[in-house]
Amino acid sequence: MKISQTKNFGLVARLSKPVQDLHFSLYPMHFNQYNCEEVKEFFEKLMENKNDIFLLLEDDRKAVGYAWIEIKEYKVNPFKKAYKSIYVHQISIDDMKRNKGYGTSLMKYIYNLSYEKGIDLVELDYWVENKVAKEFYKKNNFVKYREFVYKQL
Fold first, then answer.
1. Cβ distance 119 to 71 under 8 Å?
2. Which of 21, 23, 61, 85 has the fewest CB atoms lying closer than 10 Å?
3. Residue 128's pLDDT is what?
4. CA gap 103, 107 in Å, rounded
5. Which class is 2-139 in CATH?
6. Distance (Å, rounded) from C-alpha 150 to C-alpha 120?
7. Which string of DSSP letters, residue by residue, matches 58-89?
8. Which strand ranges, in their side-by-side order, compose the sheet holding 2-5?
9. Residue 43 CA from chain centroid, whole number
10. What is the dihedral sign for C-alpha 106, 27, 142, 139?
11. Residue pLDDT, tens place only, 26-40
């Protein structure tokens, strides 16, 4: 298994399809159907930002997953102190490779990257109906410290 940073927006766009398909199936009122060309353009622009980092997970030289993370810098204001975090936007592992430690390896890579950058906080969110994500992050000792609620009118 190999994890490396990548700028291959086409490959990441292809690997993101299962995540987009899941989100669309769970929340079609919020998510668009997967469109490879639009996703490629989106990731290509994001990859120009130094704070957006894409990690490629390979097994036997075949891409089997990725993570999209962002270094977030929260500025001081009258209400909050300044701090930095690594924010995990997406993680996707090929269906055939799930439950074999690949996601955990990606998370460990993210933790090490955080330490290297002097950042001691990793943040993320997931949609409530995404039970796989909920269990994965629980297994990786993430704890809730904020809840996001809504009311449909």
1. yes
2. 61
3. 87
4. 6
5. alpha beta
6. 30
7. EETTEEEEEEEEEEEEEPP-SS---EEEEEEE
8. 2-5, 52-59, 62-74, 83-93, 122-124
9. 13
10. negative
11. 999 999 999 999 999
pTM of the model: 0.91
User: Taking Cα atoms as reference points, which of 35, 125, 114, 116 lies closest to residue 89?
Assistant: 125
According to DSSP, the β-strands at 122-124 and 83-93 are: parallel
116 — pLDDT class (breaks 50, 70, 90): very high
Q: What percentage of the chain reaches a pLDDT higher than 70?
A: 100
At 54, phi and psi to the nearest 5? Answer: -115, 125
Residue with tokens 């130094």: 50
Distance, CA of 135 to CA of 80 (rounded, Å): 30
- Is residue 55 within 8 Å of residue 106, measured between CB atoms? yes
- Side chain identity, residue 10: G
Asked whether residue 152 carries a pLDDT value surpassing 80, the answer given is no
CA torsion through residues 104, 107, 113, 119, sign: negative
CA dist 146 and 127 (Å) reads 14
* Beta-bridge mates of residue 92: 66
Read off the tokens for 28.
């079609």
**Which residue type, as a one-letter code, is found at position 119?**
I
In angstroms, the CA 92 to CA 131 distance is 14
